[in-house]
Every structure is written in structure tokens, then in C-alpha cells.
């Protein structure tokens, strides 16, 4: 069974500070904008797109273990789809984009090497419409496509070299096989602070604005969303001034020139009436619940949902009911969750997020057969939705349908090869069917995808000792050798960055 409850929370701002203190020691970090050097042969040689992606992959493999990382299928699938919809409109853009969320109420976002973009839950929660959210993601994609992060990390300054060496050192420690979660967390926190340390120049910020604006417009979003979000970020920055809040505007300074430039571009653009996707409202509601970690914040969030139920209509009202249902479900108030979920669907609105929660709620109420029937109908309707697929698997397992689960999971792994939970669930199904070799091979695939390569080797070694089949043993030998070679190559690459 996959873990559905949220992990314990640690503010990323605290994590960043700890990582910087641990990794950088007493080295000074420049506070003023450092700018971006001109693109040249040296920058490309130091951190080519391929090497940048490799470094980004290594960082994210550890980042997915971070307590603030939100490992939720609805959230990650929606944000990444939004990012890829935007980047698809950029001419000549071949950079793969992955957008993920972290649990932090501050209004912020950041780019990592290799096309990874992190969005604070507070940014999504504070957005008033999908165009506002898309404008920030588009801006961050602009930084990625212009290779501002990669170029900034390889510029000729002492702090830049310390920065990339620190990230590499933390990743090397995490790859050592000790299972030290703290080192992986430190690597992620250090990398997540990279854009803050770089302090992009005004020119770089304006480049990202203009590229983001074009993507926003071509993807069909309302370009005025960028102006609205700029104003909101500017107000948040003034409110947080002097508090060390690390708001988005402090890492991406909103100059009068930048504001005027975008406002002028909006005036020259025909008006756009963009309809927000249903997923935006449900994901926004879920993130508001997930970021409310103490009782005071939870009460305030529930109160805001109740106000929205009274004031809103349509999908926005349904999402407010969904937020209440999701919060009640997390707190194991199943009757309250059931009541709120029924209200969410009263207006005739149907959505995969509502169906998935309904399946999980039925399972927690001890009704596996109705849950399986509901999951089957939902999967027939939304065969591209990861949340529905995961709910379907849990319904299969809870109702004892492990034989059905194996081929279903095999197909989902082919459909979504980057999602490790399907491998983990496949391992559980094989174990229940008395197939220990297959179970360990599936778990090895899971550990490879989450970056725990030494643990993957252990799983395959166990599988080899359990098998008496010569051909299976040979296949396992090849897998073990391949992973060890990857581990060696990753270490050599990180040693290069470290030095």
C-alpha cells in the first residue's frame, strides 16, 4: 500500500539555512546580484545541457526524500503538465520540464539545474486564478531555457565554485550507501537555494519575464495574470520586509522597469478570457490543506473553505467542499469527509480528484468491493490520471485482487516510467502472490528511480540468492553490473563538480 498520509514537515527556509551552514561553513555568500556572464565556450564546457540534466537528476533523486517534498500524484501531475504546456510553445525548446511542489506557506518558487522547478505551496494557495500561477512557472521556465542557473553556477567567482562543490559533496555523501537521509536533505536544500545565492541580474530577470510572457500568451493563458501576480508579489515583499521571509520578490527583484515592461506588453495584447482548469481548483485546495500543519493554520484554512462555499459557485465551490473533505479524511474523520465529498459533487460536477478521494474513503471505511467498483468506473473515465490509477491499485490490493494488480501495474509503469510508486506497489503484489524474486526486482527498480542505488544492488543480490534459474541469475548479474557502473559514473561526475 502506498503511503498516502503527508510526511512530517520541516520549513525549507530552515533546511536551506542548515545546509548552507553545514556545507559552506564560514564562507561568505554575496547578497547583491551577481549577474550572468555572457554565454561562451567555457560555460558550455563546464556545465553542458547533458551534464546539467545529470546533476539535476541527482539532486532530485535526493530531493524526493526531503520532508517538505509533496509526493502527491494530483499535485505533481498537474504542475508538470502545466509546465510542459507552457514550454511547448517556446520555439526550439528541447529542455524537459518537471514541476514539483514543496510544503511551505511562503510565496516563492525556484529553478534547479536540469529543468526542475520547485513551487511553494503558498504560491499556489495565494494565486487567484490559473493564469497567475502559470505566469510564475513560465518565468521560471524562462530562467531554465536561458540557462541562467547553469551559467550562474559556473561563473568565475569563488562563491560559485563553493556552491556547486557543496552540492556535489552532499550528493556524494548521500550516494555512499549509508542511507544517511540528512545528507540527501542537505543536498536538496543547498541546491534549492542556488537561485537565491545567484541573485539574477535585472537583465536576466527581464529575459525570463519576456520569454515567460510569450509562453503564457501562446499557451492560451491570460497575460494579465503576470501583472496581477507581480502586484501580489510586490505587496507580499513589502509586508515581509525586514522579517527574513525570503519572499519571491526578494530573490527575483521586481523593479519598476520590469513591471512597466510587462504592463506595456499586456496593453498591446488582445484581451484573453481563459477558463481555469478544474484540476487547478482541486490541486489548490489540496495544497492549502497540506501546508496547514498546526491547529491554528488548519482552523483558518477550514474557515476560508466555508466562506468560499458560501460565496463561490461551480467548480470553485466544489473545490472548497473537496478541501474540507480532504482535511477531514487526513484527520480520519471519515463521516465528515463523506458528507463534504457528497456536497462537492452535488452540483453535478465530476472530477478525478473527487473520485480518487471517494475510493480511498470507502477503503478506510472497510468497503473494499464498492471501492473497487468506483475505482474501475473512474479509471475507465480518466485513464491518464495517476491519482485514479493509484486509487485503483489500492482498491485491487485491499479486495485481494493481486493477480489483476500485477498486469495493471506493469502497464502503468510503461505509461509513467518516471513514477516510482508503481514499482513499489508491484513489489507488494508480487510478495503477496508468493513471488519473492519478482518482488525484489520490482523493489530494485523502485530504489533506482528514487536514487538509492546501493539499496537497489542489495535487493537484486537478494533476488539472485533466492533464484535457482540460471537465466534469471544471468539477468540479475547484468542488472547488478549496470547499476554499479551507473553508481561509479555518478560518483566520478560528482567528484568532477566537487573539485
UniProtKB/TrEMBL annotation:
GO terms for cellular component: membrane
Pfam families: Peptidase_M48, TPR_19
Required cofactor(s): Zn(2+)
Keywords: Hydrolase, Metal-binding, Metalloprotease, Protease, Signal, Zinc
Signal peptide extent: 1-31
Keyword Signal applies: yes
Regions annotated as coiled coil: none
Domain Peptidase M48 residue range list: 75-265
Hydrolase as UniProt keyword: yes
GO terms (BP aspect): proteolysis involved in protein catabolic process
GO MF annotation list: metal ion binding; metalloendopeptidase activity
Superkingdom classification of source: Bacteria
Protein name: Putative Zn-dependent protease
Protein's organism: Eoetvoesiella caeni
Amino acid at each position: 500500500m502506498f503511503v498516502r498520509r503527508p510526511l512530517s514537515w520541516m520549513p525549507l527556509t530552515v533546511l536551506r539555512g542548515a545546509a548552507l551552514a553545514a556545507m559552506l561553513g564560514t564562507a561568505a555568500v554575496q547578497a547583491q546580484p551577481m549577474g550572468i556572464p555572457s554565454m561562451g565556450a567555457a560555460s558550455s564546457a563546464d556545465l553542458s545541457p547533458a551534464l546539467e540534466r545529470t546533476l539535476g537528476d541527482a539532486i532530485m533523486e535526493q530531493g524526493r526524500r526531503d520532508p517538505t517534498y509533496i509526493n502527491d500524484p494530483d499535485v505533481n501531475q498537474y504542475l508538470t503538465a502545466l509546465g510542459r504546456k507552457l514550454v511547448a510553445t517556446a520555439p526550439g525548446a528541447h529542455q524537459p520540464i518537471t514541476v514539483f511542489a514543496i510544503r511551505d506557506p511562503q510565496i516563492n518558487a525556484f529553478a534547479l539545474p536540469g529543468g526542475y522547478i520547485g513551487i511553494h505551496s503558498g504560491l499556489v494557495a495565494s494565486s487567484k486564478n490559473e493564469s497567475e500561477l502559470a505566469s510564475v512557472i513560465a518565468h521560471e521556465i524562462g530562467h531554465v531555457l536561458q540557462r541562467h542557473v547553469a551559467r550562474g553556477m559556473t561563473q568565475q567567482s569563488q562563491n560559485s565554485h563553493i556552491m556547486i562543490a557543496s552540492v556535489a559533496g552532499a550528493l556524494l555523501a548521500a550516494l555512499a550507501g549509508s542511507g544517511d537521509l540528512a545528507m540527501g536533505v542537505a543536498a536538496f536544500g543547498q541546491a534549492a537555494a542556488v537561485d537565491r545565492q545567484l541573485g539574477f541580474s535585472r537583465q536576466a530577470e527581464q529575459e525570463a519575464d519576456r520569454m515567460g510572457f510569450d509562453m503564457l500568451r501562446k499557451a492560451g493563458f491570460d497575460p494579465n495574470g503576470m501583472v496581477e501576480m507581480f502586484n501580489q508579489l510586490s505587496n507580499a515583499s513589502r509586508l515581509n520586509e525586514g522579517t527574513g521571509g525570503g519572499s519571491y520578490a526578494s530573490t527575483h527583484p521586481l523593479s519598476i522597469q520590469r513591471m512597466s515592461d510587462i504592463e506595456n506588453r499586456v496593453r498591446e495584447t488582445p484581451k484573453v478570457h481563459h477558463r481555469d482548469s478544474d484540476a487547478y481548483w482541486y490541486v489548490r485546495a489540496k495544497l492549502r490543506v497540506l501546508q496547514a500543519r498546526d491547529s491554528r493554520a488548519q482552523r483558518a484554512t477550514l474557515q476560508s473553505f466555508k466562506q468560499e462555499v458560501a460565496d463561490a459557485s461551480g467548480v470553485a465551490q466544489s473545490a472548497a467542499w473537496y478541501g474540507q473533505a480532504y482535511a477531514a479524511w487526513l484527520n480520519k474523520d471519515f463521516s465528515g469527509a463523506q458528507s463534504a465529498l457528497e456536497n462537492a459533487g452535488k452540483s453535478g460536477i465530476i472530477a478525478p480528484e473527487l473520485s480518487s478521494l471517494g475510493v480511498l474513503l470507502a477503503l478506510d471505511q472497510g468497503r473494499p468491493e464498492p471501492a473497487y467498483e468506483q475505482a474501475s468506473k473512474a479509471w475507465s473515465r480518466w485513464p491518464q490520471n495517476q491519482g485514479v490509477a493509484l486509487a485503483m491499485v489500492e482498491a485491487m490490493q485491499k479486495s485481494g485482487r493481486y493477480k489483476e494488480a500485477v498486469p495493471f501495474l506493469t502497464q502503468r509503469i510503461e505509461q509513467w516510467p518516471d513514477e516510482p510508486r508503481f514499482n513499489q506497489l508491484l513489489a507488494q503484489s508480487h510478495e503477496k502472490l508468493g513471488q519473492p524474486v519478482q518482488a525484489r526486482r520490482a523493489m530494485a527498480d523502485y530504489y533506482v528511480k528514487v536514487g538509492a542505488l546501493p539499496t537497489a544492488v542489495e535487493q537484486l543480490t537478494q533476488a539472485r540468492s533466492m533464484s535457482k534459474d540460471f537465466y534469471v541469475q544471468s539477468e540479475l548479474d547484468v542488472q547488478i553490473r549496470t547499476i554499479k557502473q551507473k553508481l561509479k559514473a555518478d560518483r566520478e561526475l560528482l567528484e568532477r563538480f566537487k573539485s
